[in-house]
Write a structure and sequence with these properties.
By secondary structure, the chain is of the alpha+beta class. The protein has eight helices and 20 strands. A hairpin with a 6-residue loop joins β18 and β19. The two termini are about 25 Å apart. The chain binds uridine-diphosphate-2(N-acetylglucosaminyl) butyric acid (EPU). Uridine-diphosphate-2(N-acetylglucosaminyl) butyric acid binds next to β13 and α7.
């Protein structure tokens, strides 16, 4: 385990914010984890865990120790009549893992193609796209409990998943290091074609509805709307789609007939935050180096040289404008260190 001081994190967060870690290390194996947990001076300082850095707003200086998970590996661990059970290490790049499952002939993750980040980060905010959430496929999440160094597995229900949320983002935050994730991919999986333009795009290209083709069109749709973090810094959707009572939506729609909403549960609906932000005049608009993307208003972008204060200045103004116009509160999706 190598310990680095004043380590630059600018290339380790997809927003591309200028940030320096007071101390930094990468964990490649469980031996590294145990070495870290035995280090008495290090145990006294604050630890923060970095995955792919795709859902984070980093301050200019990150005190304490920043730990990056770099453990790799993926394998079929079990198979029965109904499903494949596939295990992947936390440091695997999410999209490489999805591509591998498709190459192996497994189904279930195709709608989640091209999401940035790592396997270990995927359960934390229950990543989701095109009608699928990762919770639909997670069998268990195995973590190192930081207080004891012991491995602990969480079943799907123990992870307490909900829309862009989980136990690991709430009560479990800072207590566990997600080490590996086991997925259950059903052999009689159902293809999800209903969300967004997936079915339309398959039909337009004359492609059969199968997992590989779904992955292909999802990648194309995402690339056409979402900026590539390699080219322009961003953290995907910056706000969650707000969940409101049906009555609130019904009232809003009388005034704004083109309002977009999606069914949720328990008499609630999700409003399309991208639509609200767009209508509030923020699509393509910026304050200083930070703005909302010109092709998808839900994505906050760093046009270059931004820091966390610049991000929050723009984000706060977007929230205020949406609230003033529609009376709806927006909640940021990325985690703020
Ligand atoms: N819209 C606008 N203007 C915009 C953006 C969107 O009017 O500038 C409208 C669209 O026309 C559409 C609706 O808003 O009718 C929803 O837009 P879209 O289908 O692009 O999806 P989204 O709700 O904006 C969510 C996820 C994305 C995911 C897509 C596709 C959240 C916060 N975001 O976005 O996830 O890729 O659906 O499933 O739930 C992410 O979390 O980082 C992410 C990219």
């Amino acid at each position: 385990m190598q310990l680095l001081a004043q380590h630059d994190l600018s290339t380790l967060n997809t927003l591309g914010l200028k940030s320096t870690a007071e101390l930094y290390t990468e964990l490649h194996s469980i031996i590294d984890v145990h070495a870290l947990l035995k280090d008495e001076p290090l145990k006294k300082i604050t630890w923060r865990i970095l995955g792919g850095g795709s859902n984070l707003v980093l301050p200019a200086k990150v005190g304490g120790l920043t730990i990056r998970l770099a453990n790799k590996g993926r394998e079929l661990v079990h198979e029965d009549e109904s499903a494949w059970f596939v295990k992947a290490q936390a440091g695997e790049i999410w999209n490489d893992f999805v591509r591998w499952t498709l190459d192996m002939g497994f189904w279930g993750l195709e709608n989640l193609s091209l999401i940035p980040g790592t396997v270990g980060a995927s359960p934390i905010q229950n990543i989701g796209a095109y009608g699928v959430e990762v919770k639909d496929s997670i069998f268990e999440v195995t973590c190192v409990e930081l207080a004891t160094g012991e491995l602990k597995s969480f079943s799907n229900s123990e992870c307490r998943f909900s829309y862009r949320d989980s136990f690991f983002k709430q009560e479990g935050a800072g207590k566990y290091l997600i080490w590996e994730v086991t997925f259950r991919l059903p052999k009689q999986g159902k293809l999800n074609l209903e969300y967004g333009d997936v079915r339309k795009e398959l039909e337009r290209q004359g492609l059969e509805a199968n997992p590989r083709n779904i992955s292909k069109v999802v990648c194309e749709i995402r690339s056409s709307k979402l900026p590539d973090p390699e080219v322009i810094g961003n953290a995907g959707s910056f706000f969650k789609n707000p969940i409101v009572p049906v009555a609130v939506r019904d009232q809003l729609i009388q005034k704004y007939p083109t309002l977009v909403s999606f069914p949720y549960a328990d008499g609630k609906v999700k409003l399309a935050a991208g639509w609200l932000i767009d209508q509030a005049g923020w699509k393509g608009k910026q304050i200083g180096p930070v703005g909302m993307f010109e092709k998808q208003a839900l994505v906050l972008v760093n046009h270059g040289g931004a820091n966390a204060d610049d991000v929050w200045t723009t984000a706060t103004q977007v929230c205020a404008d949406v609230k003033a116009r529609f009376g709806v509160e927006l909640e940021p999706e990325p985690i703020r260190w």
